[in-house]
Structure formats: structure tokens, C-alpha cells
Amino acid sequence: MSKRVSLVAINPSGLHNTSLYLLKSYALKFEKIKNNIDLKLHFFDSLVMPQSNQISVFVREIIDDMSSIVCFSCYCWNIDIVLNELDALANIDFSTRTIKPEFKQLSLVRIGTSGGLQPFVPIGTYVAAEKSIGFDGVIYFYANSNSVRDADLESELIKQLDWRLSGIWPYVVSADPSLIEQITRNDIIRGTTIAANGFYGPQGRELRLPLTDPELNRKIEVFDYNGRKITNFEMESSSLAGLAALMGHRAMTVCCIIAGRVDNHMNTDYKGSLEELIETVLDRI
């Protein structure tokens, strides 16, 4: 009997709608998957759903599908939706619209790609975000964020980076320690990851528009706090780790380094490395 697996995109752009179809098409080329897995695609767009029952429609379709595994396509613009609606699925009774008396903890691992910032994380390295530095501000919209933030590291960042971006303050959160222990071995580096809220300016890239602090990336590369250096750039780890911690869930991000930001090298053929990382995480979770 085949196992049903759902691939879910929340608030997808046209590009990511296409990516789910391509992912399914690619996966079905493997006989083991084709013969044993029933792949289902789900697209949820809050912009076209009625405001009154967005979560109900989303949850009901997932439940009715009876999938053994549910995989979500996550990006910096929908991670807040994914976390809140997964938590709702686990911990809210939709028949009474009340919080369930018994809390159900989720384990969440995001797998992605990233740009390396240090010589010891060359292209092909796997890096787990043991600490995440958020440039996105998401966690500040939720009460009691100070309970999950690393205030000492935040203060040191402001100091060493000579922070000049008014109105934006980086925050620092940790991945779940037990999940880090479970997933990482000597083949995955435990790093400190910056989650930027954009691809160009927030990661120090410049085209026509000048940057507020052109030296920010240089200061990031030399940052050192008790031997802890900033290892890589990506765009989702901080909001995932922060929101999960506030909700009581276990979460972490692990990325494959596909670009060296310091030496300006890029690996455009990283598919094999990413497939190995996915297999590694699935074997350990």
C-alpha cells in the first residue's frame, strides 16, 4: 500500500506554483517513489480565500487528505503563516474554536540553501543554524519575545557591527538544543546564521541603489563573540526558530552552502549536495 505525501505551498507566487509541479515530476522519475508514494499537491492563497475561514479551509483539506507526511514550501514571506497554521492544526480544536487542553509539540526542520561567510564553511558544507540573527523583525510583533532571545549576543552585535540601520534591530534566537543534537553530527557544522529580509540590500548586494551601510558585510565577516563567528546568510531561520520557541515547539534550520560570499564563488550544480542533505535529515529526524 502506498504512503501518501502532501506537498504544500502557502501564499505561493507563480514561480513557486510551478516549482511544486516540477518537484512532483522529478520525484516520480524514481521507481521507488513512483511505486510507493502517492504525491498530492496543495496550494493555499490567503489573498483569494474568504477572510472568515482561511485557516479552516486549509486545515480541513490537509486533514481530509490523510497524508502520512506533510511538506511545506517555506519562504521569508510565508514562514509566519506556516508556523501559526501548523500550531493551530496541532493545538486548536476547530469544532469549538478553543485551545486544546493538552499541548502537542511539533518538530520542524527547514532544509535550504545558503551563502557562506567564512573560510571554514566552503561551498558544499552543511550548516545548522544553532543561533539565528534576524534582520526581519517578525518576532517583535509577538509578546514576550525577550524570553527566547539572546540579549547578550544582541548587544554585542549592535556594538561590533556599529549598527547604523535606524528602525531595524537585529534579534538573536537559538534553535532547539535537543533537535540540534539529534540532527547534527561531524558532517554538519553548528553555525550562527543571519536571516535577512531580502536578497539584495539586506545581504549587502548593491546594484543602482546605494546601501545605508556599505561596510556592514565586512563587519559581519570579522564579528567574533567568545569564538562565535557568523557563518552564513539565508532568509528564514530566525523567524522559524523564534516563533517555534515562543509556541513551545522544536525547530531548526540546516542549509547547504552553495555560494562563497567572501571569495565570490557559486555552485550552480548543487542538486546532488542538497539531495544528500535531505536524505541525511530524514534519516535522523
Following the backbone from N to C, one meets helices and strands in this order, namely EHHEHEHEEEEHEHEHEHEEH
Largest sheet: spatial strand order: 6-10-9-7-11
Contiguous uncertain segments of 5+ residues: none
Helix count?
9
| Mean pLDDT over the full residue set | 86
Number of strands: 12
| Radius of gyration, in angstroms, nearest whole number | 19 Å
Helicity range of the residues? 25-40%
Largest sheet: 5 strands, mixed, barrel
Structural class: alpha/beta
Strand content: 15-25%
**First and last CA, distance:** 23 Å
Backbone shape = globular
Annotate the secondary structure layout.
Elements: E1 3-10, H1 14-27, H2 31-36, E2 37-44, H3 54-65, E3 69-73, H4 79-91, E4 92-93, E5 98-99, E6 107-116, E7 126-134, H5 151-160, E8 171-174, H6 177-183, E9 189-195, H7 216-222, E10 232-234, H8 237-247, E11 250-260, E12 265-266, H9 271-284
Helix pairs in contact: 4-8
Write a structural description.
This protein has helices at about 15-25, 30-35, 55-65, 80-90, 150-160, 175-185, 215-220, 235-245, 270-285, and strands at about 5-10, 35-45, 70-75, 90-95, 100, 105-115, 125-135, 170-175, 190-195, 230-235, 250-260, 265. It is an alpha/beta fold and about 280 residues long. Strand 9, helix 7 (about 215-220) and strand 10 form a beta-alpha-beta unit. The two termini are about 25 Å apart.
